[in-house]
Structure formats: C-alpha cells, structure tokens
Specification:
The complex is a heterodimer of chains A (303) and B (635).
Chain A lengths: L1 H31 L6 H17 L4 H35 L7 H23 L4 E2 L9 E4 L2 E4 H23 L1 H11 L1 H6 L4 H27 L1 E2 L3 H16 L4 H21 L5 H15 L14
Antiparallel strand pairs in A: 1-4, 2-3
Chain B lengths: L1 H11 L7 H19 L8 H26 L8 H18 L3 H20 L7 H21 L11 E2 L5 E2 L1 E2 L3 H23 L2 H11 L1 H6 L4 H27 L1 E2 L6 H14 L4 H17 L7 H15 L12 H7 L11 H7 L30 E12 L2 E12 L3 E5 L6 H8 L7 E6 L2 E2 L5 H7 L1 E3 L12 H10 L6 H6 L2 H20 L15 H13 L5 E5 L7 H16 L3 E5 L3 H7 L2 E6 L2 E6 L1 H6 L1 H8 L5
Parallel strand pairs in B: 7-12, 7-13, 10-11, 11-12
Antiparallel strand pairs in B: 1-4, 2-3, 5-6, 5-8, 8-9, 13-14
The chains are: A mainly alpha (303), B alpha/beta (635).
Chain lengths: 303, 635
C-alpha cells in the first residue's frame, strides 16, 4: 500500500509538470488553433535559465537569499523571461504566418522549436547539466509513514496554487470570459469588442511563463537537465492536453495529472521500458471512444 | 536568399497565357531529369556527394509518400516515420533471419507497412485535424519505442540490426552510384504513377476531402475509404523507402526514426508546396543539402535550419513550387484521346437546354440533357421523396419533430419558415448528414435514412449548401467533376494504368462537367480557380456541381441568399428550365417572390414542425403561417 501511495505522489508530481505545460498548449490552441511546438522547448529554456541563475557565480544567489529565497527569486526571473520569450515567438514566428493557414503555422512552430532547442545546445552545450546539491532543498520527512521530500510538497503546493489561479482567471474573471470567447470564435469575439490581440498576448505570456516555472521545478526535482528535454516533455504535455480535451482549461489539468499518475503506476507495476507505449495506446483508445478528449465538448459542425 | 527568390519568382511568374508556361515547365522538368541522371557521372562529384544525392532520393520518396496523406488529403500526419521504420525493420529482420534477397523484400516491406497502416488507422480515421495528428505522433512513438524494447529479440534493441545484405539486380548493387540510380529509378516509376493518380477520379477525390470534407461526403465521395487508402498507399511507399535505406546502411536502429524525422518530412511537403510532386522533391533536396552546406558551422547549423523554416513560412508560405491545377485541356490531353472536344460555349448550351437537344452523341447515360426525356414522363406526379414522422434532437433541443413531408416528381417544392425552424436540419436528415432518431425517409420507395451521405447521393439526391461550400483551390471544372465522382468506378489500378474503361469514363465525366458548367453559364470559367469567382457565380458553381451528379432530386439550401434582384430572376429561370428537363427540386427559400414564381407546392415549418402545406396563394392567407412570421396580433 505504501509503495502505491509513493508512486501516486510521484505520479502527481510529474503530472503537475505535465499539467502546467499542458495549460500553455491548451490556452494557445484555444485562441490560435495552433499546436505551439515551441512550447516544450520554452519549458527547457526555463529549466536552463533557472540553472544558470542558481548555479552561476558559485551559487551567490542561494548564498545571499537562502535556498528557498534563491528558488523564489529564480522562479520570478524565469517566469518573466520565458513569458517574454513566448510573446516574442508569437510576434516573430506566428503573427506573420497566421494568414497563410494552419499547416504553414505548424511548420513555423517546428522551425521555432528546432531553433530554440539548438540555441540552448549552442549556449549551454550538448551534455546534460546538473543542479548543484547546495541549491536544492533536500529535507525529507514522513507523512503517515509515507516518505516525501520537502521539494515534492512544495512543487505540488505551487502547481496546484498556480492551476487554481489560472482556473479562477479563465473561468471567473471578465478577462477570462474574453479569452474563452476568443477561443470559441475569434471573429465574433472581435465583433463584440474584445481586443483579441490582448488575449493573444495574454495566452502567449501566461502559457510559456507557467511552462518556464514548470521547467525550473522539473530541473530541481530531477537535478539533471538536457537541451532536448523539451521534445519529450512537450510531447507528453501535448498528449495530456489532447487527453483532457484541447482548448479546455480544466481538461488540461485533468489530462496532465492523469497522465503523470498513469505513467508512474505503469513504470512501478508494469514496466518502465514499455510505459510510454502504454501511455500512447491509452491516448489512442481514449480518442476512439471520446474523439474530443475526456472533457472536450462534442462540437457539431455547422452544415 | 534574395537571388534564389528572384529565380523562383521568375519561374513562378512566367506568363500563364497560352502554351508558353507549359513549355517552360516542360523544359525545366526535362532539365531536372537530365541533371538528376548526369549528377553522379560528373567528374568532380565524389562518392560523398553521390551519397548526399542518394539521401535526397530517400527523403524525396518519403516526402512523396507523406504528400499523399498530408498534401493531397490534408491529414496531419506527424508520425509518418513509423511506416518508414516498419519497412526498414521488416527488411532487416527477414533478411538477417531468413536471408531473403533485398529486392524481393521490397514489395513485402511495402505490403507490411501498408497493411499495418490500414490496421492502425482504420479505428481512428474519423478523428478530426489535431486529434488525428496526436494519434499519428503516438503511433510513430509506439513503433520507435517498440523497436528499442526489442520484443522477442527481433529488433535488436537500441543498437538495432546489423549485417543487412545489399540488393542485387542482375549485378549486386554496392557502389554509391548504383544505389543512387536504384532510388531515383524507383522514384521515377512511383512519380509516374502518382501523376496519373493526381489526374484521376481518385486524386481529385483526395483533394475534395482536403478542401471540404463535409461537402465531399455530401457530393458522393466515400471520405473514409479515400482517407484510409491515402494512409495505406503513403505507408506502402514509405515502406519502400525503408527497404532501400536499410540495405544501403546495412543496418537499422531506432534513432533513425524519431519524431524529429517525422517533423522533417512534414516540412519537406510544406516547403515544396502542398500536393505538388516537383515541389516535394525540391523540398527534400533542400532539407538534405542545407545541413551539408552548413556542416562547417556544425554547432549552429540546426539553429540556422530552424530559422530557415521560419523565414520560408513568412516569405513564401505556399512553398517553392505550389501545385498548379491542370486545365481541362491538359486533363483531356492526358487521356490521349484524339476526339478532343472544345468546351461547350454558353450560347450552345442555351440551345441545348431546350427539350430537343437531348441527342448529344457522346453523352451516354451520364448526361443532363438526357434527363430531358423524362420531362414528358406521364407518371410524373408520383411522390419521389417521403419523410415520415422524422424526429431529431440535439441535447435538449428538438430541431425536427414528427415531421412529415413529401416531394413529388417533376415539381418544385419549397420549404419555408422563420429562422431556426429546422429547415436546414431537415435537409441534413434527407441527405444523410444527420441520422433521424425516429421516423423514416424514403426515396423512390426505398428507405434511405440511416445510409451515409455518399450513398444517398448515388441514389440521385444532390444538394447545395446554405453557406457556399465549393472547393476553393480547385478549378471550376474540377469542382463540378466532384458531382460526377459517384457515377464513376475507376480505382487505383484503373487510374494508374489508364485502362480503356477508365479513359472512357473520364471522358464522359469531363463531357458531363462541361455541360453542367455551360448550363449555369460558367463555361468560360472552367479553368479558373473556384476561389476567384464572385459570390453569385459561386452559387451557380455549386448548382452545377449538384447537377453533375445527374440527380433525380436536387436539394437547394437558400440558393438566392446574397443575390440581387436581377440575379434572383436569372436563378428562377434556371430553376424552371431544370424543371423542364425533368428534375425535381426541393428548396429552402426566404425570398417569397422566388417561392411564388417557381414553386408548385410549399411546406411551412416552425420550431421543427410542419405548420402548413399547400399552394403559395393559400399559404399566404393561412393564419398559422402569418403568426409564425409576424407574431400574434395582440388585442
């Protein structure tokens, strides 16, 4: 039983990374109808930026602000920088291509993804980098006999807090209504006076911002990061997005958490090597029976 | 960049008038073939560059295979590498375990890949756009991970399989040059077949689906069948590429078949130009040669590559060589027929639309004019279409409730009612887009409810749409040919080998399409892209497309919407002349003058129910109808 709960907590942690990244995919998809393939690499960029902030200059940041202070400081800078990068990507790579249609956008997105990934490699090198032990909190304790780390608890707390805030903004605020309206029908949204450019700015800042923070937390959790980690996490998070129902905010959270838990249980109880195969089979089977994901609404095409 | 752009621009902006451009294209094609042929024979080309040429070939073949799925049918396939991997692994396993010769394995690799594609895509083919995209990504990953995990010790795990033989055809194929000619020879044969497919009923059906899936299905294209066929053919060709790749490398390993590879293929098709065969080849060459040129900047070359993709999409989103649609003349020439007909002019058509013009020698059974004979059919008062007690609801909203309606043969029946009355829903029920929850629809005394739209079309009901749904990037002629699709039979074999039956069929389809275009006064626009037509003409194009089905009943959804008075009058004349030819017409209409002018029988709907029925003069006075349109008088 204990191992089961341990796996569950582990799965939740991984799942919360997926969920945070999936939120970015989902929001961007909602408004732009675009799979932002660069999103995974922005996640990796967040991890690397955090790594540099925390470990450069012999860990001066941590030395001055303490472990938690350092992480908080890094998280703020990472969130802001990756959000900026996201907005720039939209301005440079997507906005000029948008009139040419969705397929061109996909290629443009792939181009940006390849560019960011290889820029990371050019800057930080092809070999994986490791966070120094001195900058990562390492305190472990037990809750009802289940061993957890301080970091795990923090990651879960922060992720859920962020998800809750996003949910509040998107589902409850006026601006969130504008975002949802733009997702439903961009043209009509413009007609009723919604500034869609503002909405696009918002999703391209918020999505990557969250992704960047998730990247940093992921780096701290595994301590090791590599330049091409964005592909894999991006792909998984995108799978989670589709699983939950693309363009649907609670769906992205559900999909992410579910995927993390399933993955963790599969590698714990079935086989680590085959877990991704099962994950994709699960996705395909889900889509056969629910063609628009778990929470995706059935959209009847107007004929 | 700028020099290439100028050259490209010059090529692409060559005069379109007359034969000049075709000569240009032909010269360019011949020159490219000559260059491809002579390339490995040049004295200054070493083996290294011949190998680069070989890999250009592999990517060109893969690009062509993906082009079928992505370019022709418009299905987002980002896992195409999986099929390539299967071809390569099938070759590797069967060759190393059973020592089967490589060239014998070539068709086997194609078959296994194709079969696999059929098995895995059949259950998911109904998924739309990005959902299908993630499934293909998933499939690609499943295949790659399976190879890594070495099931039953077959795939050799992460290291893959080594020691694959080279192919041998009369002499063993070993040198770079021989491999180069092998792959490009295969491409030549395959391209030959693909070009013929593009110019056939099959290729057009793919394009209809890409342009508008719903319209294609509603006009008689078996969408599911053609989508699956595209996947199977695409996978089979990728399997061939896998076979050649494995024997050239003499080894296969999972790292050659990553998601990145699939993305590259996707880019090849888009860089070249969607659906364009020469474009795809050029895209493949660009993608292969680019990293070679930038090899000195090893660390940054992929960075540049990403940037180049981005710039290309910003400045030339349609690709290097966008697909040029064939003109009617080219299509006819391709058939090799000596009896080339001039397109029917509008004037001729007018005289043809009279009852007397039914005897067009080449028209055969598939002729609109042939319908003229039916006008004087004595049994014309029979009911053609019967809707009995039909109900459909979406969630809690009942769109159509206990609806009864009847359309008589040789009549124009109008369906009117306020917005949201369920008229279009009823149309969608009749044409099979929706299935009724309750009740039955029968056509010519045969039950049609429950059948798929393309089957219903075949029985003789053709439709138009409220919001015009033409195929914008195809020519008007191709648009109208869609209607004839369901009257043809030619499949892959017939189209590739251009069997006599296929040629005859194609000729009669073209002839019919010409007549239908002329009928609505669009003969002059046959070779124009549908998207270049003004709004009013698009409506006529849709009607011509429906006429090409050679239907018994034509179902028009608000044909006059957006037309001005003069155009509406034209329309009413057209409708009456169709009626004179023996067609029966059911139309939804808001323009009461038009309804009054043309209709024999009027059915009024409100909130999903029929509230009145009869002749227009009676309907006008019916208190229920007045209430539905104007509201109840308060007093």
């Amino acid at each position: 039983m204990n191992t089961f709960i341990e796996q569950l907590i582990n799965g939740l942690t991984i799942g919360s990374f997926y969920a945070l990244v999936a939120l970015g995919y989902s929001m961007v998809y909602g408004v732009m109808k675009l799979i932002n393939f660069a999103h995974g690499d922005l996640f990796a960029f967040g991890a690397y930026l955090g790594y540099t902030l925390l470990t450069s200059a012999a860990g001066k940041v941590t030395a001055t602000l303490g472990i938690w202070g350092g992480i908080a400081f890094a998280a703020c800078i990472v969130a802001a920088s990756v959000a900026l990068a996201g907005v720039l990507v939209e301005r440079i790579a997507y906005r000029p291509v948008y009139p040419s249609g969705r397929l061109s956008l996909v290629v443009s997105a792939l181009g940006v993804a390849i560019f960011i990934q290889n820029s990371i490699m050019a800057i930080w090198g092809a070999r994986p980098q490791a966070f120094a032990a001195s900058v990562v909190p390492s305190y472990r304790f037990k809750i009802a006999g289940i061993p957890v780390t301080e970091l795990q608890v923090t990651i879960l707390a922060i992720s859920f807090a962020l998800m809750f805030i996003i949910w509040l903004i998107v589902e409850k605020s006026t601006f969130g209504a504008a975002v949802r309206a733009s997702a439903l029908d961009r043209e009509t949204a413009t007609l009723v006076g919604i500034d869609v450019r503002k909405v696009i700015f918002f999703v391209f800042a918020l999505g990557p911002g969250l992704g960047g923070v998730a990247g940093l937390m992921n780096g701290l959790y595994y301590r090791s990061i590599s330049f091409n980690m964005g592909w894999n996490y991006g792909l998984k998070a995108f799978t989670a997005t589709i699983l939950g129902g693309i363009g649907n905010i609670p769906g992205a959270m559900l999909g992410g958490l579910l995927l993390g838990i399933v993955e963790s249980l599969l590698s714990g109880y079935v086989s680590g090597a085959w877990k991704d195969v099962f994950v994709f089979i699960l996705l395909i089977v889900t889509l056969i029976f629910r063609p628009t994901g778990l929470l995706g609404e059935k959209t009847a095409e107007k004929v | 960049m700028s020099i290439t752009k100028t050259i490209l621009d010059r090529i692409l902006s060559a005069p379109t008038e007359g034969g000049k451009r075709r000569v240009d294209r032909r010269t360019i094609t011949l020159a490219s073939i000559a260059i491809l042929f002579l390339f490995p024979l040049m004295p200054f080309i070493d083996n290294y560059w011949i190998d680069v040429g070989f890999y250009c070939g592999i990517y060109a073949l893969l690009g062509l295979s993906l082009n079928i799925v992505l370019g022709e049918v418009g299905l987002f396939d980002l896992g195409h590498t999986g099929f390539y991997a299967i071809g390569a692994y099938v070759t590797a396993i069967l060759n190393t375990q059973f020592h089967l010769p490589i060239l014998l394995l070539l068709p086997i690799a194609a078959l296994v890949s194709g079969l696999f594609a059929w098995i895995v895509t059949a259950p998911v083919i109904h998924l739309k756009g990005d959902y299908l995209c993630i499934v293909t990504i998933g499939l690609g990953e499943i295949i790659r991970l399976t190879m890594i995990n070495n099931p039953f010790g077959l795939t050799g795990g992460p290291n893959g399989i080594n020691g694959i033989d080279g192919p041998s055809f009369i002499v063993p194929i070993v040198s770079s040059r021989q491999f180069y000619y092998l792959i490009w020879g295969l491409i030549a044969v395959i391209t030959f077949g693909l070009i013929r497919l593009q110019r056939s009923r099959v290729g057009r059906a793919w394009n209809y689906i890409r342009e508008d899936e719903t319209a294609a299905e509603a006009l008689g294209v078996d969408v599911r069948h053609y989508k699956l066929a595209a996947f199977v053919l695409g996978a089979a060709l990728a399997g061939i590429a896998g076979n050649v790749y494995a024997s050239k490398q003499m080894s296969v390993s999972p790292e050659s078949f990553t998601f990145m590879e699939s993305s590259l293929l996707f880019c090849i098709v888009l860089l070249g130009g969607l659906g364009s065969i020469p474009g795809t080849m050029l895209g493949a060459v660009a993608i292969t040669v680019f990293p070679e040129i930038f090899r000195p900047f090893a660390k940054y070359r992929l960075m540049f590559f990403g940037l180049a993709l981005l710039l290309m999409m910003i400045f030339k989103p349609a690709g290097f060589l966008p697909r040029v649609r064939d003109s009617g003349e080219t299509l006819r020439k391709a058939l090799g027929g000596k009896r080339r007909r001039q397109p029917v002019s509008d004037a001729q058509a007018d005289s043809e639309s009279g009852v007397g013009a039914a005897s067009d020698a080449t028209s055969g059974a598939t002729s609109v004019a042939g319908l003229a004979a039916r006008a004087s059919d004595p049994a014309s008062d029979l009911s053609l279409l019967e809707v009995k007690d039909v109900t459909l609801s979406f969630g809690g909203v009942t769109a159509v409730a206990d609806m009864d309606a009847c359309v008589s043969k040789g009549r124009i029946t109008a369906l009117i009612g306020p917005n949201g009355a369920g008229k279009t829903t009823l149309f969608n029920l009749i044409t099979g887009i929706y299935k009724p929850l309750k009740g039955e629809i029968s056509f010519k005394a045969e039950k049609i409810s429950g059948e798929r739209p393309h089957e219903i079309v075949k029985k003789g009901i053709a439709r138009t749409f409220q919001n015009i749904r033409i195929f914008p990037t195809l020519t008007c002629l191709e648009n109208v040919l869609c209607g004839q699709h369901c009257r043809g039979k030619a499949g892959f074999i017939g189209s590739i080998f251009r069997l006599p039956s296929q040629r005859r069929e194609e000729e009669s389809m073209l002839a019919c399409a010409d007549r239908c275009l002329a009928r609505v006064g669009l003969a002059e626009s046959a070779d124009k892209l549908a998207s270049s037509l003004p709004y009013g003409k698009r409506r006529y194009l849709e009607i011509a497309r429906a006429l090409a089905v050679n239907p018994d009943l034509i179902v028009l959804d608000e044909p006059s919407s957006g037309l001005n008075d003069a155009e509406t009058e034209d329309l009413s004349r057209l409708l009456l002349s169709l009626l004179a030819d023996g067609l029966s017409i059911l139309l939804i209409e808001h323009d009461m003058n038009l309804v009054d002018m043309v209709s024999d029988h009027v059915i009024v709907m409100q909130t999903g129910r029929k509230i009145a029925e009869g002749e227009m003069c009676d309907i006008r006075l019916n208190p229920l109808v007045i209430e539905a349109y104007l509201g109840k008088e308060e007093d």
